[in-house]
């Protein structure tokens, strides 16, 4: 047995359906193989026949579409690219008596879609022997039958076709009969007995003859039947059908009981010899279930489900027999007409379930196949998808459609699509079916993070605590997972030559910006930084935003006196002519404040003066003017202690002293000319004096001693103004309560002066003794340790007096 099938011919041609994407080719491969091949036998090498490499087949997801064959019978061996037998084929079971028996397949290749027709023709082998429908054929022949009379013997059946089916009949040698072989309209061969020598019932009442039917196959097969002949006395007629062949058409799905046709045969004989009965001869079981035949009336009725798609033509052979067993045959051809009883079926051949959102328009993402088992118009299928989706259905080869993308996809807008494909056939009424396919759109990092605001600005009070959060930025990225996970960073930059990272830092996950150090409004009032938001895609996308940081002022600088110049070691003394009139400008205090705004708005006030009525100071100008005309009786040495205060909350203040000499002649004040600035131990002296005084008031002096010691521990004693004019205590106002808070005098503090006399002898005049309020005062007049020391430094010299007052009062 030749195992390998032969490749008969192949037609290859290409169709370009859509110029852009599809290269669809359609060719037909036809193989011819004998039936009953072993599993695994090679039918043909499709890879070679299509001019493809064997391994390309699996890469292109080659597969067979069985076109309605319930069993595939052949399959593709992906390794070799061959078509091999997967199931033993019995031609007779598959195709019955049809001469040509072919299995049709579609070979589907993807990327690009190609569909090739494959036809496997199954050739008959002589695997069936002829056989007769019964073991014995009974004939009753009258002895009066004349020479040449023929008796129908019927047809032996052989399931094979062509030369493998019954080709000849032979009859065993006998004296009376010869055999005549005829050919049917459908090519079948049947035999008749021909009487060659009259029978004599008296001589021989019964005969048995062996009839052999043989086919022409290799090997040759045969079947036999015994013809039992009974010799009768009388003559007889054969039943004759009213038509040589009956042809009817029957719609499929007709109900059970529908009359197909009524056959009738008449017999010229009378009585029992003329009674004709009908029966099916040689009907396969499958068909026998579908039709019934009334033995007497010859009426054929439908008894089962007639399905055009299963069988479109039935041939029923009917035998009419008279009472004596003389019979004749007729054929009834029932043609089934198609009804639109099958909705189209949609099968998904391939589908990309996940489509990247940046997939180009026109990309093939799926292949579907629609089929309708019905005929002609009923088979014309029209397939649609909803218009509002970014997909398109492209008719391709025959019943195939490709699904291609149309227009842009955006996962951030639509994450998935359920697309219902509807297929409708052309029948009346049309039938339709639908199938929903699911596409999910997968993410591509196509959205950069976007900040919620165009730019950010924030206000931070100076002297902020390092590490506090000062503002936060937020950017959003609609992409999926890491493609949408945003991280923040600060662009490197400089503020006043210092890397920006030493001022602020950002939390990469939250976008919260922290200060790294304390800001100083006096150093810089604002700065800006660029914050970068970056997603974690690959490659990442980013955007940036500007953050403005404004540092708001706090009142952390006290006023600084520029004039009278504090750093000038010689004492500033203004000489005022005696003839000064009321309202004249005598001097001016000039001060500045490093803060800004209200915190730098200065006001001037005379807090102490030798003659309170004599001079005034402009509250905001700092101009010192005579309040009245100066008279001879006024003291020539005038001392003014001036407080300069800013408008902050709380306010800060500084004091200074202005010395005025009322004289027309500078020579009158020789002491001023070479006044040395002694770093004398005058404060030691003062403590001695304080100790002396404390002896007189025991309790008080003890406490003072303690405070004096404490003062010594505080650091280097400050020099006390020495040798200037003495200011009578009576000129001090009882209190000045406007000043408040840190570093200033409280109204409740009664203080006393211990200024030196003008004699430079460091003698202290005790104007009033310390009282207990002073000692217990809880307010520190000294600066808080945090405060810059410059204030003290600046106020050295002429401002010494006020500072000394402060020190004494701080001796709690
Ligand atoms: C599609 O169907 C699936 C379930 O089958 C559902 O989870 C999804 O939300 C549907 N999508 C749309 C866009 O309707
Ligand atoms: C992120 O985007 C890239 C392409 O830019 C893609 O390959 C990846 O699958 C995406 N990640 C997720 C989690 O979707
Ligand atoms: C910040 O973003 C703008 C566009 O928004 C871009 O032109 C600029 O180059 C970016 N700056 C940096 C430092 O990346």
TrEMBL record:
Annotated protein name in UniProt: Protocadherin gamma-A4-like
Membrane-spanning ranges: 687-709
One GO cellular component, as annotated: plasma membrane
Gene behind this protein: LOC115828205
UniProtKB keywords: Calcium, Cell adhesion, Cell membrane, Glycoprotein, Membrane, Repeat, Signal, Transmembrane, Transmembrane helix
Topology in membrane: Single-pass type I membrane protein
UniProt entry tagged with the keyword Membrane: yes
Domain spans labelled Cadherin: 25-132, 133-241, 242-346, 347-451, 452-561, 568-672
CDD domains xrefs: Cadherin_repeat
Subcellular localization(s) per the UniProt record: Cell membrane
PROSITE patterns to which the protein is assigned, alphabetical: CADHERIN_1, CADHERIN_2
Task performed by this protein: Potential calcium-dependent cell-adhesion protein. May be involved in the establishment and maintenance of specific neuronal connections in the brain.
Principal cellular location given in the protein's record: membrane
Keyword Signal: yes
PANTHER family in UniProt: CADHERIN-87A (PTHR24028), PCDH2G3 PROTEIN-RELATED (PTHR24028:SF114)
GO molecular function: calcium ion binding
GO biological process, one term: anatomical structure morphogenesis
Lineage summary: Eukaryota, Metazoa, Chordata, Craniata, Vertebrata
């Amino acid at each position: 047995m030749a195992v390998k099938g032969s490749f008969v011919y192949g037609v290859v041609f290409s169709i370009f359906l859509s110029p852009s994407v599809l290269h669809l080719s359609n060719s037909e491969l036809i193989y011819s193989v004998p039936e009953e091949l072993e599993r695994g036998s090679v039918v043909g090498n499709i890879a070679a026949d299509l001019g493809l490499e064997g391994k390309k087949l699996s890469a292109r997801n080659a597969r067979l579409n069985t076109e309605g064959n319930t069993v595939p019978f052949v399959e593709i061996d992906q390794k070799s690219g061959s078509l091999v037998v997967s199931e033993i084929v019995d031609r007779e079971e598959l195709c019955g008596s049809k001469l040509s028996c072919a299995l049709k397949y579609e070979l589907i290749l993807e990327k690009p879609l190609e569909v090739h027709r494959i036809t496997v023709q199954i050739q008959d082998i002589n695997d069936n022997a002829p056989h007769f429908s019964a073991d014995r054929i009974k004939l009753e022949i009258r002895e009066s039958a004349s020479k040449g009379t023929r008796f129908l013997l019927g047809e032996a059946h052989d399931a094979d076709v062509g030369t493998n089916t019954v080709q000849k009949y032979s009859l065993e040698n006998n004296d009376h009969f010869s055999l005549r072989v005829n050919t049917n309209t459908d090519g079948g061969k049947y035999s008749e007995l021909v009487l060659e020598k009259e029978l004599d019932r008296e001589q021989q009442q019964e005969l048995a003859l062996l009839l052999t039917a043989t086919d022409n196959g290799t090997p040759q097969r045969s079947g036999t039947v015994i013809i039992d002949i009974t010799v009768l006395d009388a003559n007889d007629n054969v039943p004759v059908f009213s038509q040589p062949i009956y042809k009817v058409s029957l719609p499929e799905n007709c109900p059970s009981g529908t009359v197909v046709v009524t056959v009738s045969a008449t017999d010229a004989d009378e009585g029992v010899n003329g009674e004709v009965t009908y029966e099916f001869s040689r009907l396969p079981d499958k068909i026998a279930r579908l039709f019934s035949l009334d033995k007497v009336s010859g009426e054929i009725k439908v008894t089962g489900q007639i399905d055009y798609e299963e069988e479109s033509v039935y041939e029923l052979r009917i035998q009419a027999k008279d009472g004596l067993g003389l019979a004749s045959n007729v054929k009834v051809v029932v043609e089934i007409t198609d009804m639109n009883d099958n909705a189209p079926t949609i099968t998904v051949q391939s589908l990309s379930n996940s489509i990247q959102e940046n997939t180009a328009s026109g990309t093939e993402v799926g292949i579907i196949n629609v089929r309708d088992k019905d005929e002609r118009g009923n088979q014309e299928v029209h397939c649609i998808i909803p218009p509002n989706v970014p997909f398109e259905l492209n008719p391709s080869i025959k019943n195939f459609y490709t699904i291609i993308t149309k227009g842009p996809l955006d996962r951030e807008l639509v994450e998935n699509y359920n697309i219902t494909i509807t297929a409708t056939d052309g029948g009346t009424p049309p039938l339709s079916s639908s199938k929903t396919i699911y596409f999910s759109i997968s993410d591509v990092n196509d959205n950069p993070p976007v900040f919620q605001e165009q730019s950010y600005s924030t206000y931070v009070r100076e002297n902020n605590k390092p590490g506090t959060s000062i503002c936060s930025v937020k950017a959003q990225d609609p992409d999926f997972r890491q493609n949408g996970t945003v991280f923040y960073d600060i662009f490197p930059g400089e503020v006043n030559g210092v890397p920006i990272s030493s001022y602020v830092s950002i939390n990469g996950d939250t976008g919260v910006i922290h200060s790294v150090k304390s800001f100083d409004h006096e150093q810089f009032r604002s700065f800006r930084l660029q914050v970068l938001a970056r997603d974690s895609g690959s490659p990442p996308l980013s955007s940036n935003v500007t953050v403005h940081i404004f540092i708001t002022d706090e009142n952390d600088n006290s006023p600084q006196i520029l004039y009278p110049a504090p750093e000038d070691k010689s004492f500033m003394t203004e000489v005022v002519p005696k003839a000064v009139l009321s309202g004249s400008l005598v001097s001016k205090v000039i001060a500045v404040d490093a803060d800004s705004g209200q915190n730098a708005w200065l006001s001037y006030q005379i807090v102490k003066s030798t003659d309170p009525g004599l001079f005034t100071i402009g509250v905001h100008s700092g101009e010192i003017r005579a309040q009245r005309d100066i008279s001879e009786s006024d003291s020539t040495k005038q001392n003014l202690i001036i407080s300069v205060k800013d408008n902050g909350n709380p306010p800060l203040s500084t004091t200074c002293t202005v010395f005025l000499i009322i004289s027309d002649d500078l020579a009158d004040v020789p002491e001023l000319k070479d006044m040395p600035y002694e770093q004398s131990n005058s404060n030691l002296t003062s403590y001695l004096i304080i100790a002396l005084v404390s002896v007189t008031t025991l309790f008080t002096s003890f406490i003072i001693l303690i405070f004096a010691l404490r003062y010594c521990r505080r650091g280097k004693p400050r020099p006390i103004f020495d040798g200037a004019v003495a200011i009578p205590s009576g000129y001090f106002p009882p209190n000045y309560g406007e000043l408040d808070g840190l570093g200033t005098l409280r109204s409740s503090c009664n203080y006393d002066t211990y200024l030196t006399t003008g004699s430079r002898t460091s003698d202290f005049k005790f104007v009033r003794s310390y009282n207990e309020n002073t000692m217990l005062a809880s307010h520190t007049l000294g600066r808080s340790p945090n405060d810059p020391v410059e204030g003290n430094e600046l106020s050295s010299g002429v401002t010494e007096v006020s500072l000394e007052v402060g020190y004494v009062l701080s001796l709690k």
